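ENTRY TYPE: paired fold submission
RECORD: A
CONTENT: sequence, then structure tokens
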Amino acid sequence: MKPFPAYDPRRRALLRSLVGGSSLLPGLVSRMLAEEAGRSEVPDPLAPRAPHFAPRAKRVIFLYMSGGVSHVDSWDPKPRLFADAGRTISVDEFQGRKGDFKMFAKRPQWDFAPHGRCGTEVSALFPHMAECVDDLCVIRSLHSDHTNHYEATLGIHTGSFTFARPSVGSWISYGLGTENRNLPSFVVIAPKTPYAGGQVWSGDFLPGAHQGTLVVPGAEPVSNLRRRVATQRLQQLELEAMESLNRRHLESRDADPLLSARMRSFETAFGMQMELPDVFDLSRESDATLALYGLERGSTRGFAWQCLVARRLAERGVRFVELIDVGSSDNWDAHGDMMTHAPLAKNVDQPIAGLLRDLKQRGMLDDTLVVWTTEFGRTPFNATADHKGREHHHWVFSSWLAGAGVRAGTVYGESDDHGIRVGRNGVHVHDFHATILHLMGLDHERLTYRHSGRDFRLTDVSGEVVSGLLA
């Protein structure tokens, strides 16, 4: 891990021009110059920190499918669901209802077939990702603690199903710091707000520098990125005034963490002005690369754009990038009709496969962990009288990992014959998080933060690293 950005004479010249022999931005500029000289004058929450042990991955790209992807229609083939179509199955408990609860079994809409050298079965819902199974470790036994969207979304991101807690991206930023001071350590790209809102990328009680920075696909992915005033000199004067006032307030408020976070946000914004425009400039990407993702030249929307920008952020040192495909009004929540999965799958299938292939051909998959997940699966039986939809289902569902340190071309765990409960080798969300942290060189039991009189961690008071997922 490089503790400081590579020397850039243009950056140093800009910083010295800002100082200009005066008191301009004394805190911001002196810190940045000190970092280039190899020292730090003040404690820095984003300074690179050594992992607990040698990591397999340097960064994470977290692909989140909002709304609940049906495991039995995508990654978890269940021949019994085909054979038992039209029959009635008994379930002893469903969403808190006890006793003999019966629902009409529904045949999955998409056929499964083996793919790759490994022969992992994937449904026709994801034809492009199916071609990448030799790089995937598919988990068919993930389970969580809640069946409502809000709580389940909170849980898969923070490990807490009831109270707001720091997200996994914030924990990794807190544990490792950043490799590029001109960009946030944790970036979220989402066209709409998902269930649980901004708590999905919140740093909660961690220092504010570790919360996610939201990027919204479109003509202006980050609002106010361009300089607000007409000239650089005017911006310098504004920043100098704010820095002076904020530092005076900070000294009188006993290092208020909220004010410190706000001051750090100005520093991050200053760096983003220099580097983010280049991240979003896809004009130098080849036609072949754009075609790999299924992205039309000039487009700034869609999951293909999100995936390509994620690769560009990853190669510039951003520690954690999360992509959310859709928001709460248009997602995988297929209560009424499972066929709504089809256009949603088409939106993400080729871009995700393109991302995996692009990372691999650039040698980045060797040290990038790619995570694909959703908050829960869907019932193997029907949600509606016309037998077209499926309910929420947290008892068992599917996800996959790819890249650094992952046992590629394998399947881990299994659900029962109908995909209702875990059949073997269950992976709780806490285990899932513990394994992600482990691949980043972090011990989930040692990565703690003291808050309200006790130590908190991402995995609460449980969770184990799943060795079967590791190469």
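RECORD: B
CONTENT: sequence, then structure tokens
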Amino acid sequence: MDLIRKNKYLLLIILIFGILYSLISIVNHYNFRTYALDLGAYTNALYDYIHFQWNDSTVFKEVKENLLSDHFDLYLILFSPLSLIFKSYTLLIVQIFFILSGGLGIYKYFSLLGKPTSLALCATLYFYLFFGVFSAVSFDYHSNVVAASVIPWFFYLLKQRKIIGAGLMVLFILISKENISLWLAFICLGLIVEYRKDPLLRNYLFFSFIICILYFVLITAIVMPWLSNNKTYPHFHYSFLGNNSFEALVFLIKHPLASLKILFINHTNQPFGDYAKAEFHILLLISGLPLLILKPQYILMLIPIYFQKLFHDDYAMWGIDGQYSIEYAPIMAIGIFLVINEFRNKRIAKLISVIVLITTLSCTIRIMDHTILFTDKSRIRIYQCSHYSRDYSVHKVHEQLSKIPENAIVSAQSPFLPHLAYRDNIYQFPLIKDAEFIIYSEKEEPYPTDRDTFSSITTALENSKEWTVKYKDENLTILKKSAYIKK
């Protein structure tokens, strides 16, 4: 806090971006632009964890299965006490807090270099402006955003040679999500190069690298399969490389040129996948990636992120939407401005800093304005009225949702589910099971069904003797089980 008080510009930057991120994330949630997957499922997990029970994934699965078998994410357990205060907004507030904290970590890291404050401010601004941060904030909550925001603090503590503190950061980052451990291993490799002349840090980082690899193998090959119903790891979606991580590693070693080619082409031949990778590469280049050629250890840190993103079977992962680019933000912010810091001509250094900030801002504006793959621009265009409204009365819908008993079992359409998820049992419509209330709107997307199936299901429910129409207008329909007795 002393650092912030001493630097009014830093305080102003944090305040401005705190407001901007809130205008995106909090407004999206209020206006029903957050969804069952993932905010709804994770909020339901908060409820379970604070009540000392495992989450069973029934928000989105027919058959019960421990949520940790889907992603081994222990942050939700740590953050669950906050849900007693912030309820369905908890994870969004946590996410914004950590992003702002990540920028502060970058500022403190560069302050250790003893250079002018302007360099630290520019690096912080770069992190906050990066398109991957804005796209992540615009789409629900994800623990990799929190982990990525903690990375600068790991760099900061390591720079100070605070081994215990850095070790605690490693542990905190590891428990975010199983795939983050592999990224952290490569970060340790890059930092081994960075601190190759320092025996203490070099040995510490090598030990951390081994721990990260072992953790990745333990969680993905043993723990998560053990927790799952079908005894497999559910997120190996890289069929071009093989059927598992080992086969993928063998393919990468045997076919390096073919592997590099995949980074740039539509390797699954999906009709909407063309140019998605090209757009992503162009935005990174414009955001200053070429400067990292002067510090290739920072490119090394990004290798697993490139691979897990661009080798994926789903073309939606290749683009710039959602949380799938957030890991680039801290590495590029630190690496690029370390390069700039080493320029002897300070006028050129300042000029390049300004150019990088402008081009980074232009990339963020680009994702708000136009993208190759379709994205819901209303989630992120905070400069347009459409971001702050819907084509139905949001106030009336909130009013009706507030009347649903807190202990009732609910089946809710995806955009409504996060607002009702803080309860013992809730399902994503059209999963109904033992639900006592069903909530949906014709004006929302029918996901995970198509429009015809959605209409067929809702018509049948409204005409069924099993359900009574409790409320219905042009905005919302609420059905109550005819035999429902208030508990």
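NOTES ON RECORD B: The first strand starts at residue 410 and ends at 412. Strands lie at 410-412, 426-428, 437-440, 467-472, 477-481.
STATUS: closed
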